[in-house]
Structures are given as structure tokens and as C-alpha cells.
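Archive transcription. Copying these from loose printouts into the bound notebook so they stop getting lost. Printout 1 of 2:
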Amino acid sequence: MAINSVGQNLATNGEVQKTTETENKGVLGKDDFMTLLLVELQHQDPTEPMDSEKILTQTSQLAGLESAENTNKALEGLAASLGASQNFSSISAIGKTADLGSNAITHDEGTPSSFEVYFPQEIKAGTVEILDTEGKIVGTIDIDMKDKDGDVLDKKDSGVYQFDWDGTLSDGSSAGSGVYYVTSSYTNPAGEAQTTRMGTYPIEAVRFEGGNALVKVGSNYVPLENIKEVY
């Protein structure tokens, strides 16, 4: 049984190789054109030999074909090299700040909206502001200065924090569905006023999927092309 299996595998491999060769022969390369030229010269009519100008033209076309093939191979190699270089160069962005270019959220009426805000300095106290499309503050969220046990903190560490907005506006009404913007005003332990906004986060890691680079900002991985600025 083992011998039959090997024989079948060899036969199958032979068929695959023949099929591949046949498929490859469907595309003429520079060697095929050279063979055709030599055959044409061998079987030309001695009484009417091929015009030397025609030979030079075909030879020139052959050289052009070879040059084009070499150029295509070089460009393919260059493109692959540049793609790999660009992906791995993104590793140097770890530790820097990425700006996604927008601090907008889409809110559905009656459904809480979750988002993350990065605070580059320690927090003594502060609020998160919800703005409408005209830039007017329509709602606020106090920054919780308690730990997980409910004890009041003197300060909170810098970093990325998640907030949940239930849609309540400053006048007590509920926000309608639409686009809103998120900013924050806070003070550091030295009492200095600071501001930040949603959409800017430190780059914590880089992941590669299918040849594409994804960077970790906040708790999410986003494609590198989604980042507008790194500083």
C-alpha cells in the first residue's frame, strides 16, 4: 500500500509539474522570442534572405523586452522592501503621541456613549465637556477622584481613562442622536490649568496583520493610515 501511495504521489506531482509548465508556456518570455528568431533565421529562403534591418528591429525588441522584465522585477523588489521598511519604522513611534484628527463621537438617543480621554499630566480635579456641532458646551461629566474602593484620591495618575455619557444635557434634558465633541479641562497637582481632548493618545504598541501596521492607541488598535499626526 505504501508503494502505491508513493507512486500515486509521484504521478500527481508529475501532473502538477506538467500543468504548471503548460500554464507558464502560455506567456512568452525573452527566451521564447530568441528561439522564434533563431528558427526564423534557420528556415529563411536562401534566395530571399531576411532583411538585416528587420533582424535588428527584432533584436532591439528582444532587448527591450528583457529590459522591461528586469525593470518589473526590480520595481517589485523595491515595493516589497519599502512596504516592509515603512511597517517596521512604525515601531519607532511607540511612546509618542498619536492624533487621530477628530474628537467627535456619535451619540444615539437613549443609549450611553463610551469614549476614552488621555490626560498627559496628573489630575487634581476636572471635568469632561460635551460640545455640540457649534462648539457650545451642552453637558459635563465630573472626573471621578475616587479609587476602586471608593476612597477619595488627592490626585489621579496621568493616562487614558474611559467615560460613559448617558446623554444628559446641562439643562437636564436628554441629548438627541447626532455628533458631539469631547474636550476636558482639569488642574494638575501644582494647581495649573490644563486642557486635553478625545482623539490624542500615546502609542503603546504596534501589531502587524496581513502586512499592515496597526498601532495601539487607548484600548484599540487602529490602522497606521488613520493617524493624522505623531509627535
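Printout 2 of 2:
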Amino acid sequence: MTYYRYQFGYGFPPAIKKLMIVMGAVFLLQMVVSHWINFYLGLVPVLVWKKYFLWQLFTYIFLHGGITHILFNLLALWMFGGELENYWGSKKFLFYFFFCGIGAGLCTVLFAPYQMVPVIGASGAIYGILLAFGWLFPNRPIYIYFLLPIPAKYMVIIFGLISLFSSAEGTGGGIAHLTHLGGLLFGLLYMAYPWVRQKIRREYYKRKWSQKGPGSGGYYH
């Protein structure tokens, strides 16, 4: 227990708890009503383009295709998302979660505009969480199948490559690889943005200072 508390945090942070409750409630609703809910609340790219079902970019995150699907997503959300929420705080974590989830949906709509099969699940947002975890804790060991230890950064790279090559073949086996790749992409954009902005500002001020003359009180490098 001590090992796993260190590895994945302890307890259920508030945002993680609320997300899990909402996903569980929506899954129970899916079991009660007919499958039409997947076409109305799931992400159907052709309906987003032709019928302007823009809410699907948000609602598809909370639907799942079966008990195994939701259990794995909830487990990953708790294991990796809990660590991020403790590190960032609930407000920033929730923004990042939906940024990656909606961004993954946008990638699906843009690159598969004529797809009629609904995309459902929080996997796009989960892949974004995996990327942030690997970015912030790159050397944290993750046990694949609870046996094989691998640093978090390499696990993210492996999952990203799998999604990249699989997306070239389209959606197969009921897995939306393009959505996974979109979650990774938007996660990367979010995590890299502060570093890129700082580098641009540094280069801007470096050029500005280098253009100042000797009598202007400028700096020389």
C-alpha cells in the first residue's frame, strides 16, 4: 500500500471523483436507454459537419462502449490523473482534461469528416493525461501488466507510435486510434506551450538588447 500511494497518489482527489461519478452515471443511463444515445451524445463527425451537433465534442467523453472500456478508462484516470490533480490543482486539471478530450474530438472530426460510426469514451483525454504524466514524471516506473517496469516517458512514446501507425489504417477493432492521437497532440501542445513562449520571449529580448547602442544603456552579448 505504501508503494502504490507513492506511485499513484492517495485517495480520490475531488475532480477525479466527480468525473468518475458522472461517467458511471452516464454508463448506467446507456444500459437503460437504447443505443440511439450513442448517435446523439457520442461523436459522429458527419453529424457535427452537416447537422452542427457541436455538443458531441464534449458529451462523447462521458459515454463508453462496455464494462471493460469504462473500467480501464476509470483506472487510468485515477492512477495517472490523480497524480496530476494533486500536482496542478483541480481547476487546472479539469481544464487540461477537457482541453485534451475536446481537442481529440476535433482531430477526429477534421480528419474523418464522413465517419458515421460514433466515437465514445474518455480515451482521448486519458491519452492526454498519459502524455502530461510522462512529461512531468518522465522517469517514474510504470508496470505494464503489473510485471514489466518501464519509465513513463517511454510508455507515452510507445502508445503514441501505436496510435500513429494504427490511425493510418483507420478505426479498427472498435478503437478510435485517431482520437487517441489527437489527445496526445493536444496534450503536447499544452505542455510545450510555456516552454515555446519563454523561448520566443527570450529571443525577442535578446535581439532587442543587441540592437541598442553604447549610449543607450543597452546590454551586449
